[in-house]
Amino acid sequence: MDSSAKPENHDPPPESAAATLLDLSSCQLRDLSSVDLLPTLVEVDLTANRLTALDPRLSQLSNLKKLSLRQNLLNDDSVLPLSSWHSISALQELVLRDNQMKMIPDVTIFKMLLVFDVSFNEITSLSGLSKVSNTLKELYVSKNEVTKIEEIEHFHELQILELGSNRLRVMENLQNLSSLLELWLGRNRIRVIDLCGLKCIKKLSLQSNRLTSMIGLEECVALEELYLSHNGIAKMEGLSTLVNLRVLDVASNKLTEVNDISKLTRLEDLWLNDNQIASLDSLAEGVAGFRESLTTIYLERNPCATSPNYVSRMREIFPKIEQVDSEIFA
């Protein structure tokens, strides 16, 4: 290279992302005393540190839209200052996941909040949600100790509700969530499906509950993904109207036959493993409507999966199959 050549001209660099984003995740900080908090910050990520208190300087970041305090050591007293931080009242995303809180914090001042995450804490009640802005689109309260669905009726814009791994026994107070697209209720103690008249849901998880019946889904015609594994369901029923279903997971139940899904012409993934289905012939009859669409099926640990030429028989029944159990076809 000619050392006398002039350097190439470059356009001036764009405004540094560092001026709007502060990512201190996994730094194991005990406080922020060594950190400059620029007033231009829009997003602050403090995930996986050892914070026990909130730095009051955060309250002055008037441009702040996203604040993640995930995986720290914050308790109820630690997050109390949030309720008076009016300078950041335009916050849209607040993540307090994986801390040590026992209550829903007071976030009343955040009138534009879209995402609120308090999963993986020690929260025993949803009391306090009634004060959360009705602008909310995503609410995550999984892996806590909540016993009742309450104070959510005003969330008309809510699209995702995650309440998995709690102590819920009843599906209730959902009727006003007219925009809800995803409902995650796995690992609770629910015995009966009750969607309170909702028809818009596209993804529903009730895995690892105490269900013995599928009845209650008939009007959820928008459903695309349904997860009902690890329950005590003995019969497939109430599914024939779910014509938009692409994924059906009913693994680890007590099913002996495949019923009520022959009209589901869009089904792509079917999980039936760990049941008591005896006959591949009856299976072939039950899946007549989606033989051409199915790409993945799990049947292992059913009596029928011990049949001679089991995999080749599956490939005959489903001409476009790409995976049978753990076996993937090129």
UniProtKB/TrEMBL annotation:
Q: Which GO terms describe its cellular component?
A: cytoplasm
Q: List this protein's GO terms for biological process.
A: defense response; response to other organism
Which keywords appear in this protein's UniProt record, sorted alphabetically? Leucine-rich repeat, Repeat
Task: Write down the InterPro entries for this protein, in alphabetical order.
Answer: Leu-rich_rpt, Leu-rich_rpt_4, Leu-rich_rpt_typical-subtyp, LRR_dom_sf
Q: What is this protein called?
A: Protein phosphatase 1 regulatory subunit 7
Q: What is the originating organism of this protein?
A: Salvia splendens (Scarlet sage)
